[in-house]
Amino acid sequence: MKKVLVVDDAPVDSQNLQRIFGDAGWVVVTAASGTEAVAKAKAEVPDLIMMDVNMPGLDGFSATRQIMQDPACKGIPVVFVTSKDQRQIASCADAGC
Q1: What total number of domains does the chain contain?
Q2: What distance in Å separates the CA atoms of residue 47 and residue 50, rounded to the nearest whole number?
Q3: Which residues have CB under 8 Å from 37's CB, separation 6+?
Q4: Residue 87 structural domain
Q5: pLDDT tens string for the chain (97 positions)?
Q6: This prediction's pTM
Q7: CATH code of the domain in which 73 resides
Q8: Which of 1, 2, 28, 95 is 20 to 30 A from 20 in CA distance terms?
């Protein structure tokens, strides 16, 4: 069974993604911060990470960079979930997604 790590500090957004993936048969693991995301990614090694960009403390860009430094996590696809403008979205590729 596929596993997704949903990372979002907004409960409603996190719950929506949890429902979408759960209804599709995925095992859903959640994190509410970038720091928690790094720890859960290393512990769970999911098949996919849905990453919020703007979070207090460690943002999605920094969390993704840290996750990608772990050899076990390097190949995990990361999809940024954001409503930001194109200039900030361009930073996504630089972070490893």
Answers
A1: 1
A2: 10
A3: 5, 7, 31, 49, 51, 58, 60, 63, 67
A4: 3-95
A5: 999 999 999 999 999 999 999 999 999 999 999 999 999 999 999 999 999 988 889 999 899 999 999 999 999 999 988 766 555 555 555 655 5
A6: 0.87
A7: 3.40.50.2300
A8: 95
